[in-house]
Specification:
heterodimer, A: mainly alpha, 12 helices, B: about 350 residues, MetI-like fold, two-stranded antiparallel sheet, 13 helices, about 75% helix
């Protein structure tokens, strides 16, 4: 009995690996050099973020070091300036920008993942339900989504932040509400196409329940456009979370988030030419977003060309 | 031809959306923390005074009465008076003076984006897989990955702090003063609020030059981002068109390559790009919040940020509704243009 079940799993996993190896999507993606660069950037940033999360004491990164031996607003050490300190210099509170920037990778990826993860899940759920049940359900869900889509995205996020108040978690919730409609629309479109296929009718005819049809048949066939949309949205989520922090509605004082560091860099170093205060957090932010865009673009190209229409 | 039915249908579809938008904006005031009356009179005012303000604002009425009143007022573009940002002044007045600033910035940014993005996209597509193509593609991808609130500060550092060519903030030199109206055939006329237009109307080339100088960096910041987005779309749209049969036919009948690309290719490839430009304009209005903050420009964007920080809810409501309305109208315009250019859409 147990031998039999083991061998079944073995065959299943082998066939899964074979399927993966034979998948035109994956081979196409792996032959795309830019997509691989994107993947490398993402893993690199993940490593940097995890390293900073494990190694640095966040309370030290948060609290002001003013009054200590280290100068504030000091240039990076390799510039050769008189009071130069640290690889990336120090900020207006004499904190080490290098360590804070590295830690920022952890914050960006953590909150980015949560935002994209939750809005994808919500969008998939709503989109599939709207497509499958149609009629009133479809109308109620999609018209609500239309209302949310009637705002420019950052503006809706700001309006929601006006209700929720400032804070990183609140910014994440606001952005989840901003992104969910986009996923719902893509998924609904893809699901409607799947539902036209005869095998869905066949499954229903042999007595499959609604949840089974949705989870076993509709969901797997909408995964491709969702994955691309999520990847491209990941970069956007990181930019938008940092934007809310930049405007003062996201991360609060002291948090080593790229958006807030940029805001402080602009406030304290722009007019006086202290470029390092805003340069490094912005550079890391842009590189991370570029990584996701490179990968997302590669994934979109690797998909069936007809699918490109489904993803904006 | 765009059929009247199509436009009517699109307009009717807008009604529930605008209704939903208005409801969400109404909710801002009632879901946000803090008592508006308390915000107006201040922390130290006696409760009787707070109560009087509550009564005068109609905050003691049942919610559905307030909601109805809000809808009627919003339809007439009335949002009450500002609590903080422009204390005591009607919100509609605040928006009227600051919206032109934002629109001006967005327009210049968009013009730069279109002027650079479309040729780049076409060249990239026509010379597919050449070095030019690769550089353009990676450049465009980098362009959309760099947030405005980083490219803006970088431009300020380079052109203002180091080179000193362009000013870092503001809209016009601090020593320049402009009249508040202009004169045409002896009649006094109001100004537009767009500084590059007003300076010309007033016949002040010195002031115009200063205004253009101030506008250059913020418009460039927006323009580069917009260029990246437009060139990407133009390229992929052009690539699709280049492979069509009619392109080969045109070449086969002896038409030159350049004319084929421009006359047959561009005209067809441009249609989907219009959508991007339209949607992009909405994003620009949202992005103006960031650009204005970076460059210290007093448009609607900075006003919104200020209003949210100060819990000035009427101003927040007014600006959010205005933006949503503009965004919806631009999208409607895009849809109609699109169906005019490609009548198949109407079916």
């Amino acid at each position: 009995m147990s031998v039999e079940s083991e061998s079944t799993t073995a065959t299943e996993s082998r066939s899964f690996l074979d399927r993966l190896r034979n998948s035109p999507f994956l081979s196409e993606l792996l032959s795309n050099r830019l997509a691989l660069v994107g993947l490398a950037i993402i893993f690199g940033m993940l490593f940097v973020g995890l390293y900073a999360r494990v190694t640095y004491d966040v309370s030290v990164l948060r609290s002001s070091r003013l009054g200590g031996a280290i100068a504030d607003r000091a240039a990076p050490v390799w510039t050769g300036a008189a009071d130069a300190t640290g690889l990336f210099g120090t900020d207006a509170s004499a904190r080490d920008i290098y360590k804070r920037t590295l830690y920022g990778a952890w914050i960006a990826l953590k909150f980015g993942s949560i935002t994209v993860g939750v809005s994808t899940a919500a969008g998939v759920g709503l989109g599939i339900i709207a497509a499958y049940y149609g009629d009133v359900t479809d109308n109620v869900i999609m018209r609500t989504m239309d209302v949310l889509l009637a705002f420019p995205s950052l503006l809706l996020a700001l309006a929601l932040v006006a209700i929720f108040g400032a804070g990183l978690w609140k910014a994440v919730i606001a952005l989840i509400l901003v992104y969910t409609p986009r996923f719902a629309r893509v998924v609904r479109g893809a699901a409607l196409k799947v539902l036209e296929d005869e095998y869905v009718d066949a499954t229903v005819a042999i007595g499959a329940t609604d949840p089974r049809v949705l989870v076993r048949h509709v969901l797997p066939n909408t995964l491709a456009p969702i994955t691309v949309q999520s990847t491209l949205n990941f970069g956007l989520a990181i930019i938008d979370i940092a934007a809310l922090s930049f405007l003062g509605f996201g991360a609060q004082a002291g948090t080593p988030s790229w958006g807030l560091m940029l805001a402080k860099g602009v406030e304290n170093g722009l007019q006086t030419g202290k470029w390092w205060m805003s340069f490094f957090p912005g550079l890391f932010l842009a590189i991370t977003v570029l990584g996701f865009n490179l990968l997302g673009d590669g994934m979109r190209d690797a998909l069936d060309p007809r699918m490109r229409d489904a993803v904006d | 031809m765009v059929s009247k039915r199509f436009i009517l249908k699109r307009l009717l579809l807008l009604v529930p959306v605008l209704f939903g938008v208005a409801s969400l904006v109404f909710a801002i005031l009632h879901l946000a923390p803090g008592d508006p009356a308390r915000l107006i009179v201040g922390q130290r005012a006696p409760p009787s005074q707070v109560e009087a303000v509550r009564e005068s604002l109609g905050l003691n009425d049942p919610l559905y009465v307030q909601y109805g009143r809000f809808l009627v007022d919003a339809a007439q573009f009335e949002f009450g008076d500002s609590y903080q940002v422009s204390r005591g002044n009607p919100v509609s007045q605040v928006i009227k003076t600051r919206l032109p600033v934002t629109v001006e910035l967005a327009l210049y940014g968009q013009v730069i984006g279109i002027a650079l993005g479309i040729p780049l996209g076409i060249v990239s597509a026509v010379k597919q897989d050449s070095l030019t193509d690769h550089v353009t593609r990676v450049g465009a991808l980098t362009g959309i990955s760099v947030p405005i609130y980083w490219s803006g500060p970088l431009l300020i550092l380079l052109f203002s702090a180091y080179l000193g060519i362009f000013p870092a903030a503001g809209r016009i030199g601090s020593t320049i003063f402009l009249d508040d109206h202009w004169v045409l055939f002896g009649r006094e006329l109001p100004l537009t609020g767009m500084v590059t237009v007003d300076t010309l109307l007033l016949g002040r080339p010195d002031a115009w030059f200063s205004a253009v100088q101030h506008l250059f960096l913020p418009a460039m910041t927006i323009g580069v981002y917009s260029m990246a987005l437009i060139s990407r779309m133009m390229r992929s749209s052009m690539l699709e068109v280049v492979r069509q049969d009619y392109m080969r036919t045109a070449r086969a009948k002896g038409q030159g390559a350049k004319i084929t690309v421009l006359k047959h290719g561009f005209r067809n490839a441009f249609i989907p790009v219009i959508t991007v430009i339209g949607i992009q304009f909405g994003t620009l209005l949202g992005g103006a919040v960031l650009t204005e903050t970076v460059f210290g420009i007093g448009g609607v964007g900075t006003t919104l940020v200020e209003a949210i920080s100060d819990s000035d809810y009427p101003v927040v409501q007014g600006i959010v509704l205005t933006f949503a309305l503009l965004f919806t109208l631009v999208n409607l315009g895009v849809d109609i243009t699109y169906s005019y250019l490609d009548p198949r859409i109407q079916q």
